[in-house]
Amino acid sequence: MDQLLIVTTGGTIDKVYFDDKSDFQVGAPQIGRILEEIGVAFRFDVIPILRKDSLHITDEDRELVRATIAAQPARHVLVTHGTDSMVDTAQVLQSIPDRTIVLTGALNPARFRGSDAEFNIGCAVGAVQSLPAGVYIAMNGRVWNPGTVRKNVAANRFEAC
């Protein structure tokens, strides 16, 4: 992999706490900072296109993600996404040929101690480099086909469906 394209859509991975409002909101993408701090040995470009909780991502938003990726020359693509509708977006991206696309996110904000964000990003980076063309979800230490996985909200993890 010479270059990794990263498309960010928001979600818990990018949430930050706003004291003035006493709530969490989607902030700036965290993945670029994380990869720089880790010192990865590949080039990457980050295209932030949405800052939404995935429960608020629409069909039009999914088409924007699809069109953005399709318009780029990169063969390896990582998408950060909220976990609640990640599978829906992954299914839309399956119409893009000849790319390896891996979606990942976090169940806790990246800025939180003990967040799963860095682990999920690392898993996704490994997956995007080693898998054949197609669309995948990397969560909870596993790589999934979007047609065979679901988020178990009660258990707060992804599992086979």
From TrEMBL:
Positions of substrate binding: 54, 83-84
One Pfam entry name: Asparaginase
Gene Ontology molecular functions: asparaginase activity
Active site: 12
Protein origin, superkingdom: Bacteria
Domain L-asparaginase N-terminal, chain residue ranges per copy: 4-155
Protein name: Asparaginase
Origin species: Pseudoxanthomonas broegbernensis
